[in-house]
Amino acid sequence: MTDPRGDVRTALALMQGRCVVRGIDLSDYQRLAEQVTTWDDWWDQWTAMGEHYLGLADRYQVDGWPTSAGAARVRAGIAFHFGKALAVEDDARYRELTTRSVEAVAAGLGLMDRTFERIEVPFDGHKVVGNLRRPASIPRPPLALLIPGTESVKEEFPLWEEDFLARGIATLTMDGPGQGEVGFELRIRHDYEHAVSALLDAVGGRTDLDLTRIAAAGVSLGGYYAIRTAAFEPRITAVLANCGPWSLGDGWAQLPPLYLAKYVWNLGGGSEETARARAKDITLDGVAERVQVPALVIFGGADGLMDADSHGRRTAEALPKSELWMFELGNHGVTNFAPAHLGPGADWLNARM
After folding, report:
1. Phi then psi dihedrals of residue 334, to 5 deg
2. Are strands 143-147 and 117-123 parallel, antiparallel or unpaired?
3. DSSP E strands, the chain
4. Does the annotation count 101 as an active-site position?
5. How many Å apart are CA 132 and CA 149, to the nearest integer?
6. Long-range interactions of 159-166: CB distance < 8 A, separation 24+
7. What does the buried/exposed string (b/e) look like for 168-178 if buried means 16 or more CB atoms within 10 Å of the residue's CB?
8. Which of 37, 87, 137, 154 gets the highest tally of CB atoms within 10 A of its CB?
9. In degrees rounded to 5, what are phi and psi of residue 146?
10. Global model pTM greater than 0.90
């Protein structure tokens, strides 16, 4: 029987850059790739990697090395995340690895970063959740809201957070509808700005953040969410969108099996017809022109999911105050040119918030 996600070897090739950028050691990834020949192997090998790092973390804590223990727990959590990131067929295992990922990353950040806080807010009968971190030496830093994409989660971004923290910017990395632990109950929705507003309400009034300077930055579908949030949430003062779609409905035919299966599961509850209908609502038509804050669009000319002209350049041209960083050989998320845009993108936002 053909797997709806396609060939697992194709997934391994496509995911390598992203996994390494987000914190998976390249040698670990290469060893994993040698062991994975089926999707069952995918589950098992990522889980084994996570458990290996949890074992190291326990040992480091016994030795009195909290920073090393924290780093190992974060690595474990990221491994658990990638183990279920493309899952569509085993809800129980998806939930198990999601929970283990959330717990490991939170425990790791708690050991490594004394400013770390979990922010949990009631939303739409369930909740939205964010991980808040602050640069320790700055009493009132600006805030960057980091927004994941379709099968991404807040646990994927600890390294990206470091790019902002090093520049004196606090980070609030979130799981919204359809993402991570929030996705247990809430499906993807086009009007993601309401989830953002709920989190911003929760940190409103704090004196340890400069809430007059808030940026939204998102990757993949999170790029769409970031732009839409900037259009409708007046507290956003700058925005960065990395490889977000102009219209998910228009780009539906381009989606490879690897991602199509995930969209069908997460957007349509398993029904491709429902998912396609809902995807039509995920569009910047009538939205982009409302964004009146500085906007940085980052895109890869070799993006295999989103055409650079009809999504990247179109978005940049429609935003009133935009700048486009087009990497002609860049892949989806431009993970193959990460040093050229991750830290510099944080600098760009810091200068314009």
Report:
1. 50, 40
2. unpaired
3. 117-123, 126-133, 143-147, 170-175, 214-219, 238-242, 295-300, 322-327
4. no
5. 18
6. 159/21, 159/22, 159/23, 160/22, 160/342, 161/131, 161/133, 163/342, 163/343, 163/345, 163/346, 164/346, 165/133, 165/134, 165/135, 166/135, 166/343
7. ebbbbbbbbbb
8. 154
9. -105, 125
10. yes
**Which phi and psi angles does 94 have, rounded to 5°?**
-60, -45
Is the Cβ–Cβ distance between 108 and 73 less than 8 Å?
yes
Among 101, 197, 220, 322, which one carries the catalytic annotation?
Answer: 220
- Residues with Cβ within 8 Å of 272's Cβ and at least 6 positions away in sequence, in order, are 260, 264
From the CA atom positions of the chain, what is the Rg in Å?
Answer: 19
Amino acid letter, 78: I
Query: Residue for token digits 């979130």?
Result: 174
What is d(CA 84, CA 319) in angstroms, rounded to the nearest whole number? 35
Which residues make beta-bridge pairs with 127?
122
Residue 239 has pLDDT above 70, yes or no: yes
The answer to whether the beta carbons of residues 112 and 71 sit under 8 Å apart is yes
Cα gap 142→274, rounded to integer Å: 40
Mean pLDDT of 211-234: 98
> In 3D, which of 191, 201, 149 has the Cα closest to residue 174?
149
Q: For the chain, what is the total number of helices (H) and then of strands (E)? A: 12, 8
In this structure, which amino acid lies at residue 257? P
The tens digit of pLDDT for each residue in 119-135 reads 999 999 999 999 999 99
